[in-house]
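Appendix C: a fully annotated inverse folding record. The material below is reproduced so that readers can follow the format used throughout the book. The structure is listed first as tokens, followed by the designed sequence.
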């Protein structure tokens, strides 16, 4: 069994709901101290995960919401385990409220027995704002703003390192609060324009995601859940924010208090360590000054039309 004392995040899939040519749907692997937890398991994730680790060695999987691009590859993962079930090597699979019933329905749609998933997985349903443990990691789900019930996932280890995976959500104070002073904030950047979204808002633009990161005092923001056709534009925008260059993208003002901006691509690895207490206090002290500024301004992106994006 491998051991790792520093938390590592590996991007397995960074795509949105529409299938992409070079990335699975949502899947982010967190590893530390012999624990391996997959955050979301969208279609294509399990096959890509095999290039990083044996999916059968996963300690657990946590699903943030029950849209297909975030949980459907649980079916693929199940077929890697013995068909008749197992007593050993069973991953913990944590689901949103009502998730067990949904998996029973999925098993029937797959022409399998209703207990197909629970015969190989240790299934559980989490509750909002109640932490649970998988191996060396503690995970806390926080309700977000999406078209269906959805949760952000805060993951922490024994050293205080803290990763916040926002999942699918529109811009909301709940996300800003969850991401407060995070060592790594994984934020969706699905939309090229707010005009692509429903009035109720269930996704974020890149500028909104970075604005939330700035207001929350996150040390590092990793943008995910975007169409591959926009990757070059997002990489250029992230580079511009770190260098202060405009490159035709006017968002550098938004990220002046974010230490690092990155774009999620399959295979990307990020080492996560806890900020010092002084750094956390400094980030907290700056939030009051920056949050109102980030909320009251608008930064045009100048990104290309993405009318083919699927939420």
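Designed amino acids, in order:
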């Amino acid at each position: 069994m491998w051991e790792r004392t520093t938390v590592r995040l590996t991007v397995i899939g960074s795509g949105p709901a529409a299938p992409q040519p070079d990335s699975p749907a949502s899947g982010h692997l967190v590893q530390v101290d012999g624990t391996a937890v997959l955050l979301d398991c969208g279609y294509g994730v399990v096959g890509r995960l095999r290039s990083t680790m044996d999916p059968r060695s996963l300690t657990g999987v946590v699903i943030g919401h029950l849209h297909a691009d975030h949980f459907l590859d649980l079916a693929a993962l199940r077929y890697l385990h013995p068909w008749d079930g197992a007593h050993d090597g069973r991953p913990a699979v944590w689901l949103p409220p009502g998730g067990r019933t949904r998996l029973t329905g999925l098993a029937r749609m797959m022409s399998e027995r209703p207990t197909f998933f629970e015969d190989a997985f240790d299934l559980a349903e989490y509750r909002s704002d109640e932490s649970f443990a998988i191996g060396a990691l503690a995970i806390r789900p926080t309700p977000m703003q999406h078209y269906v019930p959805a949760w952000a996932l805060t993951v922490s280890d024994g050293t205080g390192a803290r990763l916040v995976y926002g999942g699918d959500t529109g811009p909301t104070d709940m996300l800003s609060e969850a991401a407060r002073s995070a060592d790594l904030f994984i934020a969706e950047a699905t939309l090229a324009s707010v005009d692509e979204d429903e009035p109720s808002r269930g996704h974020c633009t890149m500028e909104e995601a970075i604005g939330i990161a700035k207001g929350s005092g996150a040390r590092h923001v990793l943008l995910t859940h975007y169409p591959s056709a926009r990757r070059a534009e997002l990489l250029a925008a992230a580079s511009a924010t770190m260098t202060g260059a405009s490159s035709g993208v006017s968002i550098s003002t938004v990220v002046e208090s974010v230490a690092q901006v990155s774009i999620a691509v399959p295979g990307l690895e990020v080492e996560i360590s806890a900020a010092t207490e002084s750094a956390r206090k400094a980030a907290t002290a700056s939030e009051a000054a920056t949050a109102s500024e980030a909320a009251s301004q608008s930064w045009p992106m100048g990104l290309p039309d993405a009318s083919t994006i699927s939420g």
